[in-house]
Design goal:
Blueprint (H helix, E strand, L loop, with lengths): L7 H18 L3 H12 L5 H22 L6 H28 L18 H5 L1
Helix pairs in contact: 1-2, 2-4, 3-4
Length: about 120
Amino acid sequence: MLVAPDGEREAALRYLAGLAERAAAATTSSEVAEVLTEIAAPVHGLLPLAREVVVRVWIAASDFQEAAPAVEADPIARLGSTASSMSEAAHAILRARNHAARPIQRPATASPPPSRAQPAESRRR
């Protein structure tokens, strides 16, 4: 279990719980888009930051792996593909955010089609 200093872990958990509550309470697509932005924003989003941690762990673990050749390398190698999957997930979430952020365009109310009936005077000619 990770023990963060000064209650930072608890603050992070509260933040995540707050995001979940915001998502559940969203009443507009822009509110949904705001939550998705918090999750996947390119620099400060939760998912890109978590991906950065995985990449750094992968690099560090790879260095240790080279020093201890008897240890199985496959799980460590998978961290690279996991980081790639996290990046793809962030892009998918941002596409969903962009879709949710679009203003809803209501279909134009269709006016009745013009009548093809000709006035009685024009039919007599």
